[in-house]
Amino acid sequence: MKTINSLKMTFPALSRNEAVIRSCVAAFAAQVDPTIEEISDIRSAVSEAVTNSIVHGYKDGAGEIAVTLKLTEDNCLYIKISDKGCGIEDVEKAMEPLFTTAPEGERAGLGFAVMEAFTDDLKVRSAVGKGTSVTMKKKISSRYE
Ligand SMILES: Nc1ncnc2c1ncn2[C@@H]1O[C@H](COP(=O)(O)OP(=O)(O)OP(=O)(O)O)[C@@H](O)[C@H]1O
Ligand SMILES: [Mg+2]
After folding, report:
1. What is the pLDDT of residue 85?
2. What average pLDDT does this structure show over 38-52?
3. 43 is a catalytic site residue
4. How confident is the model at residue 104 (pLDDT cuts 50, 70, 90)?
5. Cα–chain center distance at 99
6. Helix, coil or strand: residue 99
7. How far is the CA of 64 from the centre of ligand 2 (A)?
8. Going by CATH, does the domain composed of 3-139 fall within 3.30.565.10?
């Protein structure tokens, strides 16, 4: 589907940027007039992906988070959150609800489940030592059609 608008941003992987990134994505989504529920879903899913990059990907140090946004002609928003952190050994296992490698850090293992529940598609690519990218698709309803 044809891309009608896009945006690329990079941020230092700091927890203060969770809210910043969430708001940037919501601002980009606003151009297609999403419902309050759609915006809230997007914000929750983005938060989970960004938090994962910070607390897991870059657990051993500093790094950058890249956010790529695309809006297609059919009113779908594609949100890609990438890091160059430690990567995930077994993506399929990591995506199982309640799986976490950080139980001591009060992690529930529900981040991917939230991303899956609040978006229309979730793709995770990862390589150990290279990093992780999460791409989410959210169809925005057209209220005026
Ligand atoms: N960007 C990432 N880099 C490295 N590992 C990751 C990344 N994202 C997820 N993981 C791995 O996948 C596991 C599952 O992620 P998920 O978000 O579902 O749960 P969690 O972060 O452990 O807990 P919660 O999100 O509920 O606080 C993590 O425990 C971690 O091992
Ligand atoms: Mg998580």
Report:
1. 98
2. 98
3. no
4. confident
5. 18
6. coil
7. 17
8. yes
53 within ligand 1 shell (Cβ under 6 A): yes
Residues 38-57 have a mean pLDDT of 98
Buried b (16+ CB within 10 A) or exposed e, 10-42: ebebeeebbeebbebbbebbeebebeeebbebb
Give the domain ranges of the chain: 3-139
Catalytic residue, candidates 48, 73, 75, 125:
48
Q: How far apart are CA 17 and CA 54, in angstroms?
A: 10
What is the Cα–Cα distance from 84 to 99, expressed in whole angstroms?
22
* Residue 45, amino acid: A
| pLDDT of res. 105 | 75
Q: Above pLDDT 70, what percent of the chain?
A: 97
Sheet containing strand 76-83, edge to edge, reads 3-12, 64-72, 76-83, 131-139, 121-127
Q: Contact at 8 Å (CB) between 126 and 133?
A: yes
